[in-house]
Each structure stands twice: as C-alpha cells, then as structure tokens.
C-alpha cells in the first residue's frame, strides 16, 4: 500500500477544506500607497460618491444651463411678469419678467466660484502660516497663536460684514473678506500636525542632510498634511456658499442685475406669499449644493483617516 496516499496536500491560497476539517485561508492584501488606499475607500463610499456626482451635476448645469434658453439672465419682459413654469420659461419669470432658469444657473456660477475660491484661498494662507508657526515654534508660535485666539473669539461673519461694508459689494470683495478672515481655523489645524510631524525620523534625516527650513516645510511637512488640507477645503466650500448667500440676502453681497443664489432668495422672499416658487427654487439648490459638499467632505475624511483602514 502506498503511504503517500495518507499525506494531506497543502491547500492553495483562498482554498478551504471539506466540512469537518480545519480550514486554512491565506489573507493577502495588495500593497497600496496612501493615496491609492484612500481613493479605493472613497470610491466604495456610495453616499460620498453620490454627493460628488451631485456636485458635478451642479457645475455642469452652471456652465451649460444658461445656454439652454434663448433668454439672458438680465433680459426683461414686462409682459411676462411673475410668469409660471412653462415650456418657454422652465422656472417661470420674476417680478421684472426675467427668465428664472437663466438667472438660477448664472447665479450658480457666481455662488460656486465664490464658494470654491473663497474656501481655497484662506485655506492656503492658513497652511503657510500654520506650517511656519508649527515648525519654528517659540516666541513666533506663541505670537501667532495668541493673535488667532483673540481674533477667533469673534464670529467670522461679523468680520466679513464689516469688510464688505468697507470694500463694497461684488464677488471680489467677498473672496477678499473670506481670505482675510477664514485662515485662522486651518492655521491652527496645520500647526498641530506640523508639531507632530517635525519630530519624525524622515524630517530629522532631511535636516541632518542640510535641508533648509523652507524646503522642510514645503517638501516634507506640508505634503504629509495634504489629506487634512483637502478635507478642510471641501468642508469649507459649503460654508463659503452660505456666507455669500447670506450676504446677498441682507443686501451687501452680490448686487443686481448680477445674479447669485443669495440674491435670488432676496428677490423671492419679497413675493413669497404670492409666488413661493421664486423663493423655493434657489433655496433648494443652495441646500442641495451644501448637502453634496458635506457628504463628499465626510467621505474624504473617512478615506484619509488612517484609523478607519481595514
């Protein structure tokens, strides 16, 4: 009798034995970089991808939406005042006979541009100031942090309103107001991360090899905080859109005849009892855009958080 028949053959990877026998499975995880792993987990997050898809839809409609109607956002027709939704005017008309479809998507361009740039610029300023404060430390760090602690006690919106009153209305002054006042939160976050990273071995090695402080901050410290920076920018965009809408609503933001979602809400509230659609339509788009950015930002946070890796 052949004794080799009693010898059990080794199991192949991911192959299980018959019932009643001990099962063996070789769990092999492919080697992925940080960005590959984060992208994989982000794409698996259906809610975050739904938010991202809604953002893309809003951007596309803001680009091609005004082209789908023969009317300009500023064309008036006094024979079509407060017209209902129809095949000619898909969202109806306002109190001056202007096509609301054209005004909504022209206003989307302004609101999205102000929201995105108004979130990116202060975040970049905060990255630079926070990186410098965290790396050098000492009296410079104490001076910057005490200045931020004093300024951050007052709500940002109050600073923005005061700056808007001084500089005037328009997209440019709104973005400038956000840039002047919105960098403090990101600076504190980046400063804390840099304080942790500057004691790591790769930073000490680069310093030993003669890297200058500017190179250490730009090439080693800031790139390792990109995940937090991207998440912060994504979550700051809906706040900037809300601030723009609020400023336009109270009359110190975007001025007529230029259109923005906040300015359309300001116009719609005046005729809300009679023509509620003029208020609801821009309000719905503001809510959907803010929701989509928040969902996508939450997905980015989960994807970039190492504690959530499996």
Number-wise, the strands total 0
Q: Tell me the distance between the termini.
A: 49 Å
Strand portion: under 5%
Number of helical runs?
12
Mean pLDDT: 83
Query: Are there runs of 5+ residues with pLDDT below 50, and where?
Result: 1-5, 7-17, 21-27
Note the quaternary state here.
single chain
Helix-residue proportion? 55-70%
Verbal overview:
The chain is an all-alpha fold. It contains 12 helices and no strands. It has helices at residues 34-44, 46-64, 100-136, 138-151, 156-167, 171-181, 184-197, 201-208, 213-221, 226-249, 261-270, 277-304. Helix 3 (100-136) packs parallel to helix 6 and helix 10 runs antiparallel to helix 12. The longest helix has 37 residues, at 100-136. The chain is elongated. The two termini are 49 Å apart. The model is unreliable at 1-5, 7-17 and 21-27 (pLDDT under 50).
Kindly summarize this structure in a few lines.
The chain has 310 residues and is mainly alpha-helical. The protein is built from twelve helices and no strands.
Explain the layout of strands and helices.
Elements (H helix, E strand, L loop, with lengths): L33 H11 L1 H19 L35 H37 L1 H14 L4 H12 L3 H11 L2 H14 L3 H8 L4 H9 L4 H24 L11 H10 L6 H28 L6
List keywords for this structure.
disordered N terminus; 0% strand; 310 residues; mainly alpha; elongated; 64% helix
């Amino acid at each position: 009798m052949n004794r080799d028949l009693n010898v059990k053959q080794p199991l192949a990877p991911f192959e299980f034995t018959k019932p009643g026998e001990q099962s063996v499975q070789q769990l092999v995880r492919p080697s992925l970089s940080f960005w590959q792993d984060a992208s994989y987990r982000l794409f698996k997050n259906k809610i975050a991808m739904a938010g991202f898809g809604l953002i893309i839809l809003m951007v596309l409609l803001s680009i091609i939406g005004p082209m789908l109607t023969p009317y300009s956002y500023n064309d008036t027709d006094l024979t079509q005042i407060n017209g209902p939704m129809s095949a000619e005017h898909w969202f109806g008309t306002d109190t001056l006979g202007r096509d609301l479809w054209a005004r909504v998507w022209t206003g989307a361009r302004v609101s999205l541009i102000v929201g995105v740039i108004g979130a990116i610029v202060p975040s970049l300023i905060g990255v630079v100031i926070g990186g410098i404060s965290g790396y050098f430390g000492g009296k410079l760090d104490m001076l910057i942090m005490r200045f931020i602690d004093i300024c951050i006690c007052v709500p940002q919106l109050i600073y923005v309103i005061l700056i808007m009153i001084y500089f005037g209305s328009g997209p440019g002054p709104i973005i400038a107001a956000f840039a002047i006042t919105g960098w403090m939160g990101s600076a504190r976050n980046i400063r804390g991360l840099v304080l942790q990273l500057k004691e790591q071995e790769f930073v000490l090695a680069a310093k030993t090899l003669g890297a200058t402080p500017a190179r250490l901050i730009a090439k080693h410290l800031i790139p390792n905080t990109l995940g937090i920076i991207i998440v912060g920018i994504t979550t700051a965009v809906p706040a900037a859109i809300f601030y723009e809408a609020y400023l336009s609503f109270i009359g110190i933001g975007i001025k007529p005849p230029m259109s923005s979602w906040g300015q359309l809400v300001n116009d719609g509230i005046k005729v809300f009892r009679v023509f509620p659609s003029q208020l609801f339509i821009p309000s719905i788009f503001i809510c959907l855009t803010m929701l989509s950015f928040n969902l996508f930002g939450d997905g980015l946070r989960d994807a970039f958080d190492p504690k959530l890796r499996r």
